[in-house]
């Protein structure tokens, strides 16, 4: 009889794919989020696009977005004369989760920027500091620090988002658990899903611990 430890180890083998999706989704989401913020400040049309995009992405069910990116991406590649199989299925999932995360990331940063002391913004203008330089070197870092708790929640949400990528055949942690469950019955099925739950919990707790250390560091620096 397969032990709980053996099932857990089998699922850990899929952890590399899960972590890859998490890391690249975060990178994709953060870059797209900053791009969205820049579009928002350009014009009225930019603000409309920003509002529409963030509204749709935050309201849409995650499985639907992943399936749209998967089948839509393959369709577009085929129409462009590119072999769809030349791109790993993981990248469709990363693109989907990254686009969803970008909407949340943009809103978190926007809220953080609005929380920065207005006096500092006025000081930048009075000091003739170029707007982009002042934003990226002074305003944005402070907004990120202020938004650390929300970033932590978003990262944990992204971890949970990865549990649905098995819809497109990706063998991440949850995908492997489903395969074990489908090939067995009884206690082994329970062990597979408890192991999956434990792995996701460990990842989430590690993220929360790192964010807690960063928050404490910020409190020490500011004296709060």
Write the topology of this structure.
Layout (H helix, E strand, L loop, with lengths): L3 H9 L2 H26 L3 H16 L2 H18 L9 H27 L2 H9 L4 H16 L1 H14 L11 H10 L4 H36 L2
Helix pairs in contact: 1-9, 1-10, 2-3, 2-5, 3-5, 4-5, 5-7, 5-8, 8-10, 9-10
Account of the protein in words:
The protein is built from ten helices and no strands. The protein has a single domain, classed as MetI-like fold (Orthogonal Bundle), CATH 1.10.3720. It starts with a helix and ends with a helix. The chain has 224 residues and is mainly alpha-helical. Helix 5 packs across helix 7 and helix 9 runs antiparallel to helix 10.
Helicity range: over 70%
Structural class by sheet pairing and helices: mainly alpha
**What is the level-2 CATH architecture name?**
Orthogonal Bundle
Work out the helix count: 10
Percent in strands: under 5%
Number of domains: 1
Residue runs with pLDDT of under 50 for 5 or more positions: none
Shape label: flat
Terminal-residue CA separation: 55 Å
What is the average per-residue confidence, as pLDDT, rounded to a whole number?
85
- The CATH H-level superfamily is MetI-like
The whole-angstrom Rg is: 21 Å
Compact description:
This protein is mostly helical. 81% of the residues lie in helices and 0% in strands.
Keywords, please?
224 residues, mainly alpha, MetI-like fold, 81% helix, flat
